[in-house]
């Protein structure tokens, strides 16, 4: 009665917390996902979760199927990896470059998990702040670039990893706390703390300030998220960062945040790879592992 698709559906529903997001993650319409769950409930003659609860509250039967999913789905993924190795005898190289200062939070667990499953793949990691990583990717010097700035290039494919909201972090005593949402002119007399990246590549400038023709009073930089949070908490300035990067500091009531604009500023993070490696077994598995790790561990992100 229980099929593999049911395990994937309930697992996605638990991890996402909503029918809409779960449907996006497993590439179904919301109505198709609801029908699939109802079909399974009819087969089992019991409810799997309590409707209209947030977060979703699973029944004992639902919890039992989730336990089964946690046991079976990793076994299937491992078997698929083993079969891919047997079929292709595939070893390779995966040199990763990141253009994202805050990406270490999810990238390191992803690499650790991947390395256990593909020990024969040679791995390396570098940052793209001192050179142009996309030309290096095209030349074959590196194999994957984590970036939020896709540029159309021949032979390069951009695989969306997830969508995130860029929010304005500020101290709990900051005057802008009174705002429901931040407008570009609110930053005209503020010190904006950023990573040491060209302004035209920063979300807050590219999608928020530049279109409005606004410049902050001062810009200062820091390479470390934790240092930026210390400066923000002590009232030395404000900073626009990904929602998932500052979630723990908000949970600890160290700082607070507000959306940029009434609709927020939403951006997508991509993995740039060469077209000729798009179907490589270990590359496909790395991308799937990255998505799995991020959606399991990062708060506030959405399917791209």
Automatic annotation (TrEMBL):
InterPro entries: LysR_HTH_N (IPR000847), LysR_subst-bd (IPR005119), MetR_PBP2 (IPR037406), WH-like_DNA-bd_sf (IPR036388), WH_DNA-bd_sf (IPR036390). It comes from the Bacteria. It is found in: Cytoplasm. Its main location: cytoplasm. Keywords: Activator, Amino-acid biosynthesis, Cytoplasm, DNA-binding, Methionine biosynthesis, Repressor, Transcription, Transcription regulation. Residues 2-59 form the HTH lysR-type domain. CDD domains: PBP2_MetR. Belongs to the LysR transcriptional regulatory family. This is HTH-type transcriptional regulator MetR. It comes from Amphritea pacifica.
């Amino acid at each position: 009665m229980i099929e593999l698709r049911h395990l994937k559906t309930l697992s996605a529903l638990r991890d996402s917390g909503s029918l809409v997001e779960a449907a996006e993650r497993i590439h179904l319409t919301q109505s198709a996902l609801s029908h699939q769950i109802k079909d399974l409930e009819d087969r089992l003659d019991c409810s799997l979760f309590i409707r209209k609860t947030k977060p979703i509250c699973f029944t004992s039967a639902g919890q039992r199927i989730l336990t089964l999913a946690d046991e079976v789905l990793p076994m299937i993924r491992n078997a698929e990896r083993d079969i891919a190795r047997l079929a292709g005898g595939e070893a390779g190289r995966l040199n990763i470059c990141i253009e994202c200062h805050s990406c270490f939070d999810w990238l390191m667990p992803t690499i650790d998990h991947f390395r256990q499953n593909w020990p024969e793949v040679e791995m390396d990691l570098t940052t793209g702040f001192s050179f142009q990583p996309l030309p290096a990717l095209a030349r074959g010097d590196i194999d994957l670039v984590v970036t939020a700035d896709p540029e159309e290039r021949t032979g390069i494919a951009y695989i969306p990893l997830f969508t995130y909201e860029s929010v304005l972090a500020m101290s709990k005593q900051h005057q802008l706390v009174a705002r429901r949402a931040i407008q570009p002119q609110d930053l005209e007399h503020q010190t904006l703390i950023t990573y040491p990246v060209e302004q035209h590549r920063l979300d807050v400038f590219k999608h928020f300030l530049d279109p409005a023709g606004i410049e902050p009073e001062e810009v200062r930089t820091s390479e470390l998220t934790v240092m930026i949070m210390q400066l923000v908490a002590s009232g030395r300035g404000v900073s626009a960062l990904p929602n998932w990067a500052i979630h723990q500091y908000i949970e600890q009531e160290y700082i607070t945040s507000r959306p940029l604009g009434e609709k927020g500023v939403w951006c997508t993070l991509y993995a740039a790879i060469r077209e000729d490696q798009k179907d490589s077994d270990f590359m496909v598995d790395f991308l799937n592992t990255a998505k799995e790790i991020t959606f399991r561990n990062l708060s506030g992100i959405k399917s791209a």
